[in-house]
């Protein structure tokens, strides 16, 4: 049996990987179901009801305003008027524009305007699962001693680790594509039956497709990151521990340190900012420590800096390449036992 075929079979033989995929699908299914039942398709009756509610609220506000105005005008001269009289007597009565029908409409799922945000939800959930899969796929080999047995059968270390990595990337891509397709179909059905699919031009589909490709890249990259960390630590728990330390402890501590040192644009050093930039193409961060001397004529121009998905991609790719090089170097240099 070839090494590639053996690794492909080994991948889905692991119960943890099977359950992780099932858990991911279930979570996405629960969210899609909640979105479906939380939205409602707009009909002529729904619009008429919303307009009636808006009109009723406006009439009530006007009546209340007139009642308060009359009460203020009837206050005997010399008596202290209630505080609200200053606002009422200023003439700022309720405006019709404050009570629009759209404010009283039920939630409706507009595919064009909301699906991009849902792509981010899918990518975030599957990226977490991909990290654990990538870490456990190689980490379990070390902790159980299977790596030693495998190298006895196939003593080429670089070939073994490289094949594992290639199989992981292939399976993660497949899982991401399948779950992404199911996610898209579920939300498209929600838009058809509980919302709107208007405005879906070829350009819109292309834009959403590119966002989906970035989501796919994020899932695979995070999975490879887990693989590299587990290879370096030779245990799944090491990768999970490093991730927990970096994401929770490290980010909180780094935020406090950056603010204490008054570092300009502190958000650009944080992982969530770069994840947002990757998925939304660009994000702007501000400098909370701008020099007051930059204000001219009493007007201050906010200092902002843009972080693009290319910036985030370059940094992430560089970090993953470095970790993979270290992992393969360690695989070649250290004893396997």
UniProtKB/TrEMBL annotation:
This is Uncharacterized protein. The keyword ATP-binding does not apply. GO terms for molecular function: ABC-type transporter activity. It comes from Catellatospora bangladeshensis. PANTHER family: INTEGRAL MEMBRANE PROTEIN-RELATED, MEMBRANE PROTEIN. Coiled coil: none annotated. It holds the Pfam family ABC2_membrane_2. The keyword Metal-binding does not apply.
């Amino acid at each position: 049996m070839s090494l590639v075929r053996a690794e492909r079979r080994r991948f889905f033989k692991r119960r943890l990987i099977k359950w992780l995929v099932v858990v991911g699908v279930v979570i996405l299914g629960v969210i899609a179901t909640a979105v479906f039942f939380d939205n409602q398709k707009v009909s002529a009756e729904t619009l008429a009801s919303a307009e009636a509610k808006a009109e009723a609220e406006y009439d009530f506000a006007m009546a209340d305003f007139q009642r308060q105005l009359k009460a203020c005008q009837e206050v005997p001269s010399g008596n202290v008027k209630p505080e609200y009289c200053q606002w009422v007597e200023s003439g700022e009565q309720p405006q019709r524009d404050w009570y629009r029908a759209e404010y009283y409409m039920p939630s409706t799922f507009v595919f064009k305007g909301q699906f991009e945000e849902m792509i981010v939800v899918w990518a975030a959930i599957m990226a977490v699962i991909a990290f654990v899969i990538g870490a456990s796929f190689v980490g379990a080999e070390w902790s159980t001693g299977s790596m030693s047995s495998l190298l006895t059968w196939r003593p080429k270390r670089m070939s073994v680790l490289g094949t594992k990595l290639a199989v992981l990337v292939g399976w993660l891509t497949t899982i991401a594509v399948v779950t992404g397709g199911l996610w898209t179909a579920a939300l498209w059905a929600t838009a058809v039956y509980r919302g709107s699919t208007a405005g879906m031009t070829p350009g819109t589909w292309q834009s959403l497709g590119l966002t989906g490709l970035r989501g796919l890249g994020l899932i695979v990259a995070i999975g490879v990151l887990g693989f590299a960390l587990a290879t370096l630590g030779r245990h799944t728990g090491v990768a999970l521990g490093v991730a927990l330390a970096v994401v929770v402890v490290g980010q909180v501590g780094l935020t406090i340190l950056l603010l204490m040192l008054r570092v300009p644009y502190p958000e650009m050093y944080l992982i969530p900012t770069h994840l947002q930039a990757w998925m939304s193409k660009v994000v702007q961060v501000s400098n909370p420590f701008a020099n007051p001397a930059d204000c001219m004529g009493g007007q201050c121009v906010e200092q902002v800096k843009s972080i693009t998905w290319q910036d985030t991609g370059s940094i992430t790719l560089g970090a993953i390449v470095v970790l993979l090089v270290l992992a393969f170097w360690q695989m070649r240099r250290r004893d396997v036992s």
